[in-house]
Amino acid sequence: LKHIAFIMDGNGRWARRRGLPRYFGHKVGYDKMKAVTKRCSELGLEVCSIYAFSTENWSRPQEEIDELFRLIRENMHKDTPLFMEWNIRVVTMGDVTRFPKDLQDKLAEIVETTKNNTGCVLNLCINYGGRADIIHAVNKIRETDERFLSGAKGSYRGRADITEQEFDKLLYGADLPPPDLIVRTSGEQRVSNFMLWQMAYSEFLFIKPYWPQMTAKQVDKCVAAFKKRKRRFGKIG
Ligand code: FPP
């Protein structure tokens, strides 16, 4: 088990159940993201991915988007010393260029500060979508792969076929192993446009707790459940 990815879901419902504003759910959710990452690091995992902002989340009310940005801009930045202490390297996955410039700068600073840490990678999936990831890769090929330009103008004739391995390298997070386990909280059983290509052989866990109810112990339970799975990768067991 190298890579666990979390679809953090249920922040809003958790807050509403307590008569609190949705924002409060995100705030507690953010703290849980830290606790979960810390546990993944303690367990010696290579990567902990967190689906923090999807390409579809732009259609939420602007106030909620602003609150989420504020968590990244302020808390994430303030917590950088913790990530250093835990030896966590922060990276992002997704098109951050759509974020406000100061937010991009803050993120770049956190990535830069933590870049030599050798423990767990915290892979923040922000403005990420599985389809957007694939289309972004396709467009990179169009722009850069000379095999696509070698035929007559405007035609793709004469190029060699792109292999899965080559395509893989063009996706966001190309230097990370694919997720072995994807955990979604809050009881919903869906994929919501997360790592569509990368999840080809992932195991899934859909667990009941809302994300703000996540604990280190829950992470341990997920790892234990994963270890009982028999992965066959299309072969015979
Ligand atoms: C899911 O709950 C949560 C989100 C869509 C956003 C979570 C983002 C953060 C906590 C920001 C922290 C991120 C970083 C990168 C520092 P939901 O709102 O969909 O819950 P609901 O389904 O109950 O409404």
Structure description:
This protein is of the alpha/beta class and 237 residues long. Helices cover 42% and strands 14% of the residues. The chain has helices at 11-17, 22-42, 62-78, 80-85, 101-113, 130-144, 146-149, 164-168, 216-227; strands spanning 3-7, 47-54, 89-93, 121-128, 181-184, 203-206. The longest helix has 21 residues, at 22-42. The model has no long low-confidence stretch (mean pLDDT 93). The structure holds farnesyl diphosphate (FPP). Farnesyl diphosphate binds at residues 8-13, 26, 29-30, 52, 57, 68, 71-72, 76, 124, 126. Farnesyl diphosphate (FPP) binds next to α1, α2, α3 and β4.
Features:
alpha/beta; 237 residues; 42% helix; binds farnesyl diphosphate; globular; 6-stranded parallel beta sheet
Quick recap:
This protein has helices at 11-17, 22-42, 62-78, 80-85, 101-113, 130-144, 146-149, 164-168, 216-227, and strands spanning 3-7, 47-54, 89-93, 121-128, 181-184, 203-206.
- What's the number of helices? 9
Number of beta strands = 6
Q: What coarse outline follows from CA principal-axis ratios? A: globular
Q: Give unreliable regions as ranges.
A: none
Q: Distance N terminus to C terminus?
A: 18 Å
Overall mean pLDDT: 93
What proportion of the residues is helical, as a percent range? 40-55%
Task: Record the SSE blueprint.
Elements lengths: L2 E5 L3 H7 L4 H21 L4 E8 L7 H17 L1 H6 L3 E5 L7 H13 L7 E8 L1 H15 L1 H4 L14 H5 L12 E4 L18 E4 L9 H12 L10
Parallel strand pairs: 1-2, 1-5, 2-4, 3-4, 5-6
